[in-house]
TrEMBL record:
Pfam families attached to this UniProt entry: Helicase_C_2 (PF13307)
Key words of the record: ATP-binding, Helicase, Hydrolase, Nucleotide-binding
Protein name: ATP-dependent DNA helicase
Residues passing through the membrane, by range: none
MF terms (GO), sorted A to Z: DNA helicase activity; hydrolase activity
Positions of the Helicase ATP-binding domain: 29-303
Family indicated by similarity: Belongs to the helicase family. DinG subfamily.
Source superkingdom: Bacteria
PROSITE patterns for this protein: HELICASE_ATP_BIND_2
SMART domains: DEXDc, HELICc2
Length: 637
């Protein structure tokens, strides 16, 4: 990593922070206006609030409405401080969609480079699941004749399976490079937790490895997702113990863009998972080695017992949400104990097998690590009453997920106890300028905060309609979208509603795009390029930035209350008033984000439609408080 010079001079009688303040003032009062950018009081206020956070190395919640220029403000500080300390700043985004928008040719980083005549060394560090796995690609190619999988092979660089010096290697294998793969096809060839990268024989030619070596050399900025940042936090100690580098280098500061979503990334990272098919996959590969007959019988016994165990789990699952609550019956606990005993016995046998050198080292390491994870999951399921446990179903597999405890305790200790500038940036971090919900969820005890409103005149450019108990909701949404003169975004709160709309909508003569049908940033590009298209999504409540006629209408299919799942049940159990402390703040924050997708520039205008049930009518006063304009209410009672 080469350290770059500061973008401003420091005289002998100045401190860094004094020179930084002078430069920020010059940029906002002189340089940017000369380049045609409007001087915004909200942006100036935010900038000088951020200066204190950097000076004090503290946590700040920077809540700034759409159009305040918050991204440019935090980027200026992040780059300057990175060069001052010689360590890159980490910008953690909600997801890969927001990452791509931040670094695209028309994004704010490019704008700063052009307006300030400076080069910013920015590199992407995406979640490991966003990269191709050569081992899984080989397996998938043997199992299927899918032409899309063949196309992935044709795209591989020559050095992957051919000759060539390491000096000619370059990063490849990013999910974005294969937009034609839908989510199911991608999951057949991408990295997953069963891949042992450390002992992989093609590791030095792996796209993920090459990407990691590349972004670690960033001089100014590393942009990653919240998921990847939290995976870095949870794994850094174990990676260091194993002689590996942490996933991310030491940072000068950390910016959480759309920081209200950090908690959910932390929950996802701090879990133990075992699936119905994974056990069969791991042990079948192990039994293909030249192991003793005793070991083979034990493997067969475990596979049969594991199937029974999963049948009990599946049979006791509450299927009212995607995260299905598990009823820990006596039979399930008993079977868990039996399975644990058998796996312990197999691990002992594998020690003996390894001494005979009859098992492939890669297969052995994968098997041992996976079995250890299953053992820990079994222990948590049977013995830890505070563990949060649920079942997930995806495509043709079932997955048991166990989270040992609430994440705020670990976040408090492992993240926010560090003396670093931590910047939370979003248009929605508070409920009525109260940041308690977010701070307590993340284990943040000391912080500063501020709120600045959007400079846009929403009354002149936005109309909001609330539809109350519409008996023909799908028909109404279809009619609204059909008559819209621009693009429409339909936001769903669960997959079932999205799937129902897919098969019952009556949208005519418009390209209808569904999240999950292909790589998300490519899907967004299609939506932006076709000004009459319709994008149906579960996860684009935040992060989507599509100005202009391509997004003229946002439809909220239902209020985004949190699901009735084990994670939120645990949060509710720790709240004095679960409705007002958990459910309502979550819904209002997410609804604010969804509404915020419509007006992205001073030239934008459009319509928002929100559908409520009769039972949700009681929340209209709270909803009105967070909406930019007073809604029209249409009741079908």
């Amino acid at each position: 990593m080469k350290s770059k010079s500061l973008p401003f001079p420091i005289t002998s009688d100045q401190s860094f922070y004094e020179a930084l303040g002078d430069w920020i003032g010059d940029v906002f009062y002189d340089i940017l206006p000369e380049k045609g950018l409007e001087l915004r009081d909200e942006q100036i206020f935010m900038a000088f609030q951020l200066e204190q956070a950097y000076k004090n190395k503290s946590v700040i919640f920077a809540e700034a409405g759409v159009g305040t220029g918050k991204t440019i403000a935090y980027l200026l500080y992040a780059v300057a401080y990175a060069r001052y300390t010689g360590k890159p700043a980490i910008i953690s985004c909600a997801d890969e969609t927001l990452i791509e928008q931040l670094v695209k040719p028309t994004g704010d980083i490019k704008k700063i480079e052009q307006m300030l005549d400076m080069q910013i060394d920015v590199r992407l560090a995406k979640s490991r699941e966003q990269y191709l796995c050569l081992k899984k690609l080989d397996d998938a190619d043997k199992r299927t004749e899918d032409e899309a999988i063949e196309d992935v092979y044709l795209q591989l660089p020559e050095f992957v399976y051919g000759a060539g010096s390491m000096s000619s290697f370059y990063p490849y294998g990013d999910r974005k490079e294969y937009p034609y793969l839908d989510d199911e096809q991608w999951q057949a060839v991408n990295y997953d937790s069963l891949q042992d990268c450390l002992s992989c024989d093609v590791r030095h030619r792996c796209g993920q490895t090459l990407h990691r070596e590349y972004y670690r050399q960033a001089g100014d900025l590393i942009v990653c997702s919240h998921d990847f940042y939290m995976e870095h936090i949870w794994t850094k100690d174990s990676r260091i113990r194993e002689g590996q580098l942490p996933l991310l280098p030491e940072a000068s500061s950390v910016i959480f863009d759309e920081g209200h979503l950090l908690e959910y990334a932390a929950q996802k990272a701090l879990t133990y998972k075992t699936s119905l098919q994974s056990m069969e996959k791991v042990l079948s590969k192990l039994s293909a080695n030249d192991v003793r007959e005793k070991t083979l019988h034990l493997i067969d016994s475990i596979l049969e017992l594991h199937d029974d165990w999963f049948s009990l789990i599946s049979g006791s699952a509450d299927r009212s949400s995607e995260r299905m609550k598990i009823n820990k019956t006596d039979q399930l606990i008993k079977t868990s104990a039996t399975l644990k005993k058998s796996i312990d016995q197999l691990l002992e046998e594998l020690v003996f097998e390894s001494e005979l050198y009859v098992i492939d080292e890669y297969d052995l390491k994968i098997s041992e690590e996976y079995l250890e994870t299953v053992l820990f999951s079994l222990k948590l399921l049977a013995e830890d009453d505070n563990a949060i446990i649920w079942l997930e179903e995806s495509f043709d597999d079932e997955r048991l997920v166990i989270m040992p405890r609430m994440v705020e305790e670990i976040l408090r200790e492992e993240v926010f106890s560090k003396k670093l500038p931590f910047i939370f940036s979003s248009a929605t971090l508070s409920v009525d300028e109260d940041f308690t919900y977010l701070a307590s969820s993340l284990g943040i005890d000391d912080y500063t905060s501020f709120t600045v409103e959007s400079p846009y005149e929403y009354d002149e450019v936005m109309k909001i309609t609330i539809y109350l108990e519409d008996p023909d909701k799908t028909d109404t949404i279809s009619k609204i979208v059909n008559h819209n003169d621009g693009g429409s975004l339909i936001l769903f709160n669960n997959r079932e509603d999205q799937d129902l709309f897919r098969f019952t909508n009556m949208i005519e003569n418009k390209q209808l795009l569904f999240e999950g049908d292909e790589e998300i940033s490519s899907l967004v590009e299609k939506f932006q390029e076709d000004a009459t298209s319709v994008l149906a999504s579960l996860n684009l409540w935040e992060g989507l930035d599509v100005p202009g006629i391509s997004l003229k209408h946002v439809v909220v299919d239902s209020l985004p209350f949190p699901p009735d799942d084990p994670v939120f049940e645990a949060k509710r159990n720790h709240a004095a008033d679960p409705l007002t402390e958990v459910d309502l703040p979550y819904m209002l924050l997410r609804l604010q984000q969804g509404v915020g997708r419509l007006i992205r520039s001073s030239a934008d205008s459009g319509h928002i439609s929100i559908f409520l049930t009769t039972e949700e009518e009681q929340w209209i006063p709270a909803i009105k408080k967070i909406l930019p304009v007073t809604p029209e209410i249409i009741s079908y009672d």
